[in-house]
Design brief:
This protein has 468 residues and is α+β, with helices and mostly antiparallel strands. The protein is built from 11 helices and 28 strands. Its EC number is 2.7.7.13.
């Protein structure tokens, strides 16, 4: 039996869970439904099945989030394939398959979106083992979720007769309510989970039949890409030349070897706040309360609070409070949150992409106050980490150390600052901030100047390979 190679797809933006999920910090990196983040939970779910480290396909901008979150749970060092542009799932999986084949073996690829909830992890692992023989024999297996409601938000798979792994009769698009009810009544229809199991070589063979230009483009992107530690950067020009398509359209709907295994494992793609409400624990009044929430005569609500949120006499609403945005919506209209995100993007507002607290490979910063010609940030630098050697054309900076030790490069000078000490970085002076210690460095930064945007950074050296 071939070794099992997990492939975690982590390129989504999760805009329907705004304001908690944002482009720079989407839902797969959030702890939704457990103490672990969704990508961490996805890995833990499949770790008992394999001795191989995961292959992760991620957005270039999320590379350090993926690496750090897997490091936190002591996952084996992954290969992280970085997509320079979004081209949907078929090219992403092709890159993972080609990467898996590089070692001279031909593993079974278990392809998993990294932002799904599966309540019964053991049942899912059993399903993977049940599907392995068919995949080993050359089938391209997908997992169809046994429906418990006439859901209109998912595509469906009509399965052939039989038990266990059976041929796919057809894939069907998201139905209207009447058609979904008909599918549920007839039986033999399953939600399309977007999870797959097949040999790496078989996927490439089938993709070559139907999308040869895609295979060629991805091969070139991988061979011409750059490798930096755990990161494999696909060549942008080559990858951009690939057709954009989903695995369903590119392969699964065309191949004669598509098979499906029905599963009942408590699956949910957590595609909206109402979906998250469905999988969470409810109190006696049907409320889901995360954080500091007071509820008075209120029922069937979902509330996520980062401060104090009080409900009085409301039903069937979603309230999500973050430090820079609040969402209030009827529970049956949460799909329209994407309209809010579209408006934010149209207005070029930062809340579409960024939280007030922004994570960087060296740590994080939190913009705690801002006004005309000034901004105050709380900065955390991880032990042993450093910011780039940089300068600014439009702002000066004051740094005050709250805890830890800061090594500061300021022009030709090098300073070592401890708690309650500070320094000043004049406009136009080259500087760098480092944490040489063993504990996190916490400091307050006060910026002043005519322009305080994050794009006013000129980098001269950067250990993380950033150019802006």
């Amino acid at each position: 039996m071939s070794e099992l190679q997990p492939v975690l797809l982590s390129g989504g933006s999760g805009t329907r869970l705004w304001p908690l999920s944002r482009e720079a910090y989407p839902k797969q990196f959030l702890p939704l439904g457990s103490d672990d983040t969704m990508v961490q939970t996805t890995w833990k779910r499949v770790e008992p099945l394999t001795s191989l480290a995961p292959i992760v396909v991620a957005n270039e901008d999320h590379r350090f989030l993926v690496a750090e979150q897997l490091r936190q749970i002591k996952a084996p060092t992954p290969k992280i394939l970085l997509e320079p542009v979004a081209k949907n799932t078929a090219p992403a999986i092709a890159a993972a398959a080609l990467c898996a084949l590089e070692g001279g073996t031909d593993p079974l690829l278990l392809v998993l979106p990294s932002d799904h909830v599966i309540a019964n992890a053991e049942a899912f692992r059993n399903a993977v083992e049940s599907a392995s023989a068919a995949a080993e024999a050359g089938a391209l297996v997908t997992f169809g979720v046994v429906p418990d409601a006439p859901e209109t938000g998912f595509g469906y798979i009509q399965a052939g007769a039989g038990h266990g792994v059976v041929p796919v009769q057809r894939f069907v698009e998201k139905p209207d309510a009447q058609t979904a009810a008909q599918y549920l009544a007839e039986g033999g229809y399953y939600w399309n989970s977007g999870m797959f199991l097949f040999k790496a070589s078989r996927y490439i063979e089938e993709l070559q039949k139907f999308q040869p230009a895609m295979v060629e483009a991805v091969k070139q992107a991988l061979s011409a890409g750059t490798r930096d530690g755990d990161f494999i950067r696909l060549d942008k020009a080559a990858f951009a030349a690939s057709p954009s398509d989903s695995i369903d359209y590119a392969v699964m709907e065309k191949t004669a070897d598509a098979k499906v295994l029905p599963i009942d494992v408590g699956w949910n793609d957590v595609g909206s706040w109402s979906a998250l409400y469905d999988v969470a624990d409810h109190d006696a009044n049907g409320n889901v309360c995360v954080g500091d929430v007071i509820s008075v005569e209120s029922r069937n609500n979902y509330v996520h609070a980062e401060g104090l949120v009080a409900l009085v006499g409301v039903e069937d609403v979603v309230v999500v409070e973050t430090d820079d945005a609040i969402l209030v919506a009827k529970k049956d209209r949460v799909q329209e949150v994407k309209k809010v995100v579209a408006q934010l993007k149209h207005d070029q507002r930062s809340q579409a992409a960024l939280h007030r607290k922004v994570y960087r490979p060296w740590g994080a910063y939190d913009s705690i106050d801002m006004g005309a010609r000034f901004q105050v940030k709380r900065i955390t630098v991880n032990p042993g980490a450093s910011l780039s050697l940089q300068m600014h054309h439009h702002r000066a900076e004051h740094w005050i150390v709250v805890s830890g030790t800061a090594k500061v490069t300021r022009g030709d000078d090098t300073l070592l600052l401890s708690e309650n000490q500070s320094t000043y970085i004049p406009l136009g002076v080259t500087h760098r901030l480092e944490n040489p210690g063993k504990v996190p460095l916490e400091l307050i930064e006060v910026q002043s100047g005519s322009y305080l945007g994050e794009d006013d950074i000129v980098r001269f050296e950067d250990v993380y390979g950033r150019s802006n």
